[in-house]
Amino acid sequence: MSQLDEKQLSQLIEAALFIADTPLTINQLKQTVLETYGIGSVQIRSVLLQLELDYRERGIVLVKSGGAYQFQSREDLSQPLSALWPQKAPKFSRALLETLALIAYRQPITRGEIEQVRGVAIGAAIIRTLTERGWVTVVGHKELPGRPALYATTEQFLQYFCLQSLADLPALDDEQALAAMFNRAPADSDPHVH
Protein backbone atom coordinates (compact mmCIF):
# COMPACT_ATOMS: atom_id res chain seq x y z
CA MET A 1 0.00 0.00 0.00
CA SER A 2 1.66 3.21 -1.09
CA GLN A 3 -1.39 5.42 -0.51
CA LEU A 4 -4.36 4.80 1.74
CA ASP A 5 -7.93 5.58 0.85
CA GLU A 6 -10.30 6.57 3.66
CA LYS A 7 -11.53 3.01 4.23
CA GLN A 8 -8.00 1.57 4.36
CA LEU A 9 -6.89 4.30 6.77
CA SER A 10 -9.81 3.53 9.07
CA GLN A 11 -9.10 -0.21 8.91
CA LEU A 12 -5.40 0.30 9.67
CA ILE A 13 -6.07 2.55 12.67
CA GLU A 14 -8.76 0.16 13.94
CA ALA A 15 -6.43 -2.84 13.65
CA ALA A 16 -3.54 -0.98 15.30
CA LEU A 17 -5.70 -0.02 18.27
CA PHE A 18 -7.08 -3.53 18.55
CA ILE A 19 -3.71 -5.30 18.66
CA ALA A 20 -1.77 -2.72 20.69
CA ASP A 21 -0.83 -3.74 24.23
CA THR A 22 -1.35 -0.20 25.49
CA PRO A 23 -3.53 2.76 24.51
CA LEU A 24 -2.15 4.74 21.56
CA THR A 25 -1.98 8.49 21.08
CA ILE A 26 -2.43 10.21 17.72
CA ASN A 27 1.33 10.86 17.63
CA GLN A 28 2.09 7.19 18.32
CA LEU A 29 -0.16 6.20 15.41
CA LYS A 30 1.55 8.79 13.18
CA GLN A 31 5.04 7.62 14.14
CA THR A 32 4.39 3.88 13.81
CA VAL A 33 1.81 2.32 11.52
CA LEU A 34 1.07 5.55 9.61
CA GLU A 35 4.64 6.84 9.36
CA THR A 36 5.15 5.98 5.68
CA TYR A 37 1.83 7.48 4.60
CA GLY A 38 2.25 11.08 5.75
CA ILE A 39 -1.19 11.18 7.37
CA GLY A 40 -1.82 14.31 9.45
CA SER A 41 -3.15 14.56 12.99
CA VAL A 42 -6.41 16.16 11.87
CA GLN A 43 -7.18 13.25 9.53
CA ILE A 44 -6.29 10.68 12.21
CA ARG A 45 -8.48 12.48 14.77
CA SER A 46 -11.34 12.46 12.26
CA VAL A 47 -11.01 8.70 11.76
CA LEU A 48 -10.87 8.14 15.53
CA LEU A 49 -14.04 10.17 16.03
CA GLN A 50 -15.79 8.15 13.34
CA LEU A 51 -14.62 4.89 14.94
CA GLU A 52 -15.98 6.10 18.30
CA LEU A 53 -19.36 6.68 16.65
CA ASP A 54 -19.27 3.36 14.76
CA TYR A 55 -18.58 1.40 17.96
CA ARG A 56 -20.87 3.38 20.28
CA GLU A 57 -23.70 0.79 20.32
CA ARG A 58 -21.52 -2.32 20.15
CA GLY A 59 -20.10 -4.60 22.84
CA ILE A 60 -16.66 -3.10 22.23
CA VAL A 61 -16.19 0.67 22.42
CA LEU A 62 -13.33 2.99 21.54
CA VAL A 63 -12.41 5.12 24.54
CA LYS A 64 -10.04 8.03 24.94
CA SER A 65 -8.27 8.27 28.25
CA GLY A 66 -5.35 10.49 29.10
CA GLY A 67 -4.95 11.52 25.46
CA ALA A 68 -4.66 7.93 24.20
CA TYR A 69 -7.18 5.61 22.55
CA GLN A 70 -8.00 1.95 23.15
CA PHE A 71 -10.76 -0.56 22.56
CA GLN A 72 -12.42 -2.09 25.59
CA SER A 73 -15.65 -3.81 26.47
CA ARG A 74 -18.58 -1.63 27.44
CA GLU A 75 -18.58 -0.78 31.13
CA ASP A 76 -22.16 -2.05 31.53
CA LEU A 77 -21.02 -5.50 30.34
CA SER A 78 -18.22 -5.86 32.90
CA GLN A 79 -20.24 -7.97 35.34
CA PRO A 80 -21.32 -10.73 32.90
CA LEU A 81 -17.90 -10.71 31.21
CA SER A 82 -16.02 -11.01 34.51
CA ALA A 83 -16.49 -14.79 34.41
CA LEU A 84 -14.06 -14.89 31.47
CA TRP A 85 -11.11 -13.61 33.47
CA PRO A 86 -10.45 -15.29 36.79
CA GLN A 87 -7.86 -12.78 37.95
CA LYS A 88 -9.32 -10.03 40.11
CA ALA A 89 -8.15 -6.46 40.27
CA PRO A 90 -5.23 -6.11 42.65
CA LYS A 91 -6.18 -5.00 46.14
CA PHE A 92 -4.32 -1.96 47.38
CA SER A 93 -3.84 -0.91 50.97
CA ARG A 94 -5.78 1.99 52.38
CA ALA A 95 -2.47 3.81 52.94
CA LEU A 96 -1.51 3.43 49.28
CA LEU A 97 -4.91 4.63 48.05
CA GLU A 98 -4.91 7.58 50.46
CA THR A 99 -1.43 8.54 49.29
CA LEU A 100 -2.43 8.26 45.65
CA ALA A 101 -5.56 10.35 46.25
CA LEU A 102 -3.54 13.07 48.00
CA ILE A 103 -1.08 13.19 45.12
CA ALA A 104 -3.91 13.30 42.56
CA TYR A 105 -5.83 16.08 44.29
CA ARG A 106 -2.99 18.21 45.67
CA GLN A 107 -0.22 17.76 43.13
CA PRO A 108 2.54 18.64 43.09
CA ILE A 109 3.04 17.52 46.69
CA THR A 110 5.97 16.36 48.79
CA ARG A 111 6.15 13.21 50.87
CA GLY A 112 6.30 15.36 54.01
CA GLU A 113 3.11 17.19 53.01
CA ILE A 114 1.37 13.85 52.42
CA GLU A 115 2.50 12.64 55.85
CA GLN A 116 1.29 15.88 57.45
CA VAL A 117 -2.21 15.47 55.95
CA ARG A 118 -2.43 11.75 56.74
CA GLY A 119 -0.95 12.19 60.21
CA VAL A 120 1.33 9.16 59.80
CA ALA A 121 4.60 8.38 58.07
CA ILE A 122 4.50 6.90 54.57
CA GLY A 123 6.55 3.79 54.03
CA ALA A 124 9.06 3.97 51.18
CA ALA A 125 7.30 0.95 49.66
CA ILE A 126 4.16 3.00 49.01
CA ILE A 127 5.94 5.65 46.95
CA ARG A 128 7.98 2.94 45.22
CA THR A 129 4.81 0.98 44.31
CA LEU A 130 3.13 4.10 42.90
CA THR A 131 6.19 5.02 40.82
CA GLU A 132 6.81 1.44 39.63
CA ARG A 133 3.20 1.25 38.44
CA GLY A 134 3.81 4.49 36.57
CA TRP A 135 0.99 6.30 38.38
CA VAL A 136 3.16 9.01 39.96
CA THR A 137 6.44 10.62 39.09
CA VAL A 138 8.82 13.22 40.48
CA VAL A 139 8.09 16.52 38.73
CA GLY A 140 10.58 18.70 40.58
CA HIS A 141 11.92 19.59 43.98
CA LYS A 142 10.54 22.04 46.52
CA GLU A 143 12.78 24.93 47.51
CA LEU A 144 13.12 23.83 51.12
CA PRO A 145 16.06 22.41 53.08
CA GLY A 146 16.82 18.98 51.65
CA ARG A 147 14.95 19.87 48.42
CA PRO A 148 12.20 17.24 48.85
CA ALA A 149 10.78 15.64 45.71
CA LEU A 150 7.46 16.90 44.37
CA TYR A 151 5.12 14.11 43.21
CA ALA A 152 2.37 14.30 40.59
CA THR A 153 0.24 11.80 38.69
CA THR A 154 1.01 10.62 35.15
CA GLU A 155 -0.85 9.88 31.92
CA GLN A 156 -0.69 6.21 32.93
CA PHE A 157 -2.63 7.08 36.11
CA LEU A 158 -5.35 8.69 33.98
CA GLN A 159 -5.50 5.68 31.65
CA TYR A 160 -5.58 3.09 34.43
CA PHE A 161 -8.38 4.86 36.28
CA CYS A 162 -10.32 5.63 33.06
CA LEU A 163 -10.02 9.41 33.34
CA GLN A 164 -9.70 11.88 30.46
CA SER A 165 -8.03 14.47 32.69
CA LEU A 166 -7.64 15.41 36.34
CA ALA A 167 -10.83 17.44 35.99
CA ASP A 168 -12.68 14.09 35.81
CA LEU A 169 -11.66 13.17 39.37
CA PRO A 170 -14.73 12.90 41.60
CA ALA A 171 -15.28 15.56 44.25
CA LEU A 172 -13.23 14.85 47.36
CA ASP A 173 -16.33 14.82 49.55
CA ASP A 174 -18.02 12.19 47.36
CA GLU A 175 -16.76 9.01 49.03
CA GLN A 176 -18.97 6.76 46.87
CA ALA A 177 -17.60 8.25 43.65
CA LEU A 178 -14.03 7.90 44.92
CA ALA A 179 -14.63 4.26 45.86
CA ALA A 180 -16.22 3.61 42.47
CA MET A 181 -13.24 5.16 40.67
CA PHE A 182 -10.77 2.94 42.49
CA ASN A 183 -12.99 -0.13 42.02
CA ARG A 184 -13.58 0.39 38.28
CA ALA A 185 -9.88 0.38 37.48
CA PRO A 186 -9.14 -2.67 35.32
CA ALA A 187 -7.10 -5.59 36.57
CA ASP A 188 -3.56 -5.66 35.23
CA SER A 189 -4.25 -8.52 32.85
CA ASP A 190 -7.91 -7.74 32.31
CA PRO A 191 -8.73 -9.08 28.82
CA HIS A 192 -11.65 -6.69 28.29
CA VAL A 193 -9.06 -3.98 27.56
CA HIS A 194 -7.36 -4.41 24.20
TrEMBL record:
The keyword Kinase does not apply. Gene3D superfamilies: Winged helix-like DNA-binding domain superfamily/Winged helix DNA-binding domain. Keywords: Cell cycle, Cell division, Chromosome partition, Cytoplasm. It comes from the Bacteria. Pfam families: SMC_ScpB. One of its GO terms (biological process) is chromosome separation. This is SMC-Scp complex subunit ScpB. It comes from Ferrimonas lipolytica.
